[in-house]
Every structure is written in structure tokens, then in C-alpha cells.
Amino acid sequence: MTTALWKGGPSQAPLPPMMQGLPIIGNALEMAQDVLKCMVKGYRAHGPIFRIRALADTYTVIAGPEANMFFSREQGQHLRSKEFWAGIDQEMEANITLISSDGPEHTELRQIAKRGYSRSLYEAHFPEVVAITRQKVEAWPVGETRSVVPWVQEVVTEQLGQVIVGTSVGDYGKDIYNFIRTALVVLITRQRPGFLLKMPAYQNARRRSFELGEKIIAFHRANPPTNRPRNLIDDALDAVAAGHILKDGDLVPFALGPYIAGLDTSSNSIAFMLYAVFKYPEILAGIQNELGGLFANEVPAPGDLRKMDVLHRTALETLRCYPVVPAIQRTVTEPFEFAGHRVEGGGRLFIATTAVHYDEKYYPNPEKFDIDRYLPARNEHRTPGVFAPYGLGTHSCLGAGLAEAQIMMTIATMLQFGKFVMVPADYTLKVRPLPTNAPANNFQLKRVG
Ligand code: HEM
């Protein structure tokens, strides 16, 4: 495949083929219902480059391993993040944020945030992580059936608060969730209309979220990290004091950043994995078998989590089958040619990073949930560009290691301190698409011990 980057005069290459869609609305409905399914359909029908239409807008999509490698290598040169995230920046009253910045500014911010979002930071907080998760399990009465996603969201919100921004979310949990979710569905995934941002309930959740952000900053200013571990906020305050790129006014959005990046993504991935755990009894048995090693010393050590083989392979297969960020969007700053077609400047590009997760060339029988794909003899995810749940290149998920540990540790702790069954036992997963794919609320577990 050619990935020519042409300089100079207009490209003679044809435009990418257009995906079939409905009259007038094009592919808008398919996209609103399930982005991943729509992208996989286009990739299977047209290969590595095609266009989709949603009402009056047309977008180019690139997909497959070469597209992923191209994106990983070249995004800084031809693509820009800013426009896609601009609405959230405005809503957060942020001058600059990690996800929406590009070039040297982005590199500097990423350096500031790196330690605070690291796996080792999360691992250093295993005692709190276990205590939070265990407390939420024990608050779930035996005999009660609950929707899984809202419960997991509570656990994840509290973990992100205590571990990354050093502050319990307390009774701000629902506000944070309502604020972020509404802002994302209106401004980023555009699945809901703009008037929702004017509604009093949203405005109240937004105000309360800012209030939490201010409390987080005030706490860290008043309590420097002399007798407690450093975290993301201490690093941000140091950067402000040093006169680096961050200014005082950027601190509240910075403090809310972990919730924007991690709340839905991590919660939904944990919920999808719980579905797999309870759908396939051999997976549940395999994980339960490993728990003894993890909790032998009350609080697990980082090395013990890394030894959890079935738990780890189930997490990888969950991220392949149920990627919560199925595609990434960028503005094309410089035109280029890809796979024999031209991509014009100024438009919006979808990089369908996870469409290849369903390519049978790399994952035989791709619809099957099969954790043996990750055994050393097969290692199907190791071909470059075929496994991209966390994105690729300069903006790839800064919390990827943390998220993996969070997914594994939360599920391990839940299974260690509670016994659950799926209700009904033969439930088949339904997916809801807001703001990104998640199990529907009728995915329920009953605590039985
Ligand atoms: C399974 C869970 C997760 C998935 C699938 C995921 C996926 C992603 C993806 C695809 C991106 C790239 C977005 C882009 O290029 O536009 C991203 C960025 C990011 N993620 Fe995650 N994420 C997860 C969990 C988390 C968690 C728990 C945190 C931390 C609390 C986090 C922090 C970040 C940050 C800070 C960025 C921005 C990086 C940058 O712009 O340089 N993520 N994530």
C-alpha cells in the first residue's frame, strides 16, 4: 500500500469511495447507534480508506494496520486535535488542555502530567484502591440486584479522586458525572442537541464540578506534599509556580481532566469485562483460581497483579472486542494521499483505530470472545498496528497503564470480597452508545455472598 505524502501541486489521486447510506441522512443513524459497527462495515466493504456522510457533512475515514501506523507516525505533521476538543475547552473555561493541544505545547503539558497519570502512581495506592472497592462491595446488600454500570462508575469516580487528584469526590460524584457526560454527548460525540447545556440541572452540575475543582486546588495549596505522596495536582502547581505553560486559570480544568479522560472509559471497560466474566464460567473460574495469589498478603503488591494471567488476557480481549473509544477524530491541516486516494486539507478525518480489531486476517473468528489469542503461541495483538484501544502516537492514552491496572484490580477486588451472579443468568449483552459504548442498564448482577 502506498502512503504517499504529496507536496506541491494538486493531487491527481481520486477521492476515497463513499460508503452506502440512506437518502438525506447518509450514515448519520448508523454512526449515532454504533460507531464501531459502522466503521467495521466500511472497512470490510472498502478497505483502508472511504468516506461517510452524516446529513450535510462528509468525513474521510482511514482504517486498518497501515492507517494506524500512519496515524501513529504522522499525526503531528498532517493532523490537529484542537478543533475537535474546542467545545469542551470552552465549557471548561480552559486556555489550554492536554488533549486539545498540539506540537511543543502538548509535549510540555504531557511531561507535566506524565507522573500523575502513571501506572506506578496507581500501584502505590493499592491499599486505598482495595479499600474503596471493598467498601462499595460491602455496601451492596446480599440478595440485591443492581445495574452494573452506575455501580462501577461510583467505584471508579472515587478511585480517580483519591488516587489521581488526592481528594475524595464525596457528594460531588453525580455532579461530575452529569456535567462530563452531558458536555461530551453535546460537544464531542454530538449525539445530543446544544440546548441541553442551558438546562438548569446541567448548569448546576457544572457549577458544582467547578466547585470541586476549586476545592481540590485549595487543598493542595494549603497542604504541600511534605507528609503525603505527590500527585498530579502538586506537579501542576509546581509548573504554575515555575512559570511554565500552565497558568492559575488552567488549574481547575486540569484537576477535572482525570474525570473527563478516565471516568466513562474505565467504567465502561470494567463493565464490559464483568459481562465477559459472568457470561463465560471458565473465565470466572480461571480468575477466581488466581485470586489466592493476589490477596495472599491482604494488600496486593504490583508484581502480584502482573502475574494474573487469566485476568490480564480477559482485560485485553475486552479492550479488543468492546473498545470504548472506537475511533479518533482530527482536523486535516495538510492534504495527503493515503492508499491511492487523496485526503483534502481543512476537513475532519476519522481514524478508525479499532476497526482492525474485527479483521479476521489478524484475529481469526473475530466475533468470538477468545482470551487464548494472547497466549504466547498466538499473540495475535502483537502485529504492529492491529491493537489500538488506547489510540496511538503523540496523544495516545496517558493513563493506559493506570487504566489496565484499574480494570484488573477493581474486578479482582470485587470477586475477592463478594459473590455475584448475572441476572438473568442467560442475559445477552445490549450496548448503549452514549457518550461512548457501554453495557445497557439492563446488564445486572445480584450479590449472593
Ligand atoms: C480502558 C480505559 C481507557 C481507554 C480505552 C482510553 C482511551 C484513550 C484514547 C483512545 C485516547 C486518545 C485520544 C486522542 O488521541 O484523541 C486517550 C487519551 C487520554 N487518556 Fe485515556 N483511556 C482510558 C482510560 C484512561 C484513564 C483511566 C485515564 C486517567 C485517569 C486516562 C487518561 C488519558 C489522558 C490524560 C489522555 C490524553 C493524552 C494526550 O492528549 O496526550 N485514560 N485515552
Quote the beta fraction: 5-15%
**Share of helical residues:** 40-55%
List the ions, cofactors and other small molecules found in this model. Answer: protoporphyrin IX containing FE
Order of helices and strands: HHEEHEHHHHEHHHHHHHHEEEEHEEEE
If you average the pLDDT, what whole number results?
A: 94
What structural class should be given to the helix and strand makeup? Answer: alpha+beta
Order of strands across the biggest sheet? 1-2-8-5-3
CATH topology: Cytochrome p450
Largest sheet: 5 strands, mixed
Query: How many individual domains?
Result: 1
Low-confidence stretches: none
- CATH homology superfamily name: Cytochrome P450
CATH-scheme architecture: Orthogonal Bundle
Shape: globular
Discrete helix count: 16
CATH class: Mainly Alpha
